[in-house]
Design a protein that fits this description.
By secondary structure, the chain is of the alpha+beta class. The protein is built from 5 helices and 4 strands.
């Protein structure tokens, strides 16, 4: 009898969502991106996280510490204040543009909130 447990991002997303809950009031949008969001977990054991809001980077790292330990994965957060995110979107910043147009697993907020923060439609 084989037991099939697909390695979908859902369980990890739940752990990260719970870890960020204390900062939820300071985070407008948070999502997993990169290979993990594409369900291509063999590419990297790391989980790349993108956040927009008023949370401080150090606070995000602290909040994610227990989740990182529980998951046994390195969590790499990128944190932008809303104004800086909008400026980078307007300027066509390559990293931000690549992340925004790629696969995402939302933890806080959604595609509509992301579009509002970007100040434009995120047409793919």
């Amino acid at each position: 009898m084989s037991c099939h447990h697909p390695r979908r991002p859902t369980g990890v997303a739940d752990v990260l969502r719970n870890a960020l809950a204390p900062l939820a009031g300071l985070i407008r949008v948070a999502f997993i991106y990169g290979s993990f969001a594409r369900s291509d977990e063999n590419a990297s054991r790391d989980v790349d996280l993108f956040l927009v809001g008023n949370a401080k980077f150090g606070d995000v790292v602290s909040a994610l510490g227990p989740a990182q330990e529980a998951l046994g994965r390195e969590i790499n957060p990128t944190v932008y204040p809303a104004a800086e995110f909008r400026t980078k979107m307007a300027g066509g910043h390559s990293f931000v543009k690549q992340v925004i147009t790629g696969s995402k697993v939302f933890l806080i907020g959604d595609e509509h909130e992301l579009a509002r923060l970007a100040g434009k439609s995120l047409g793919h």
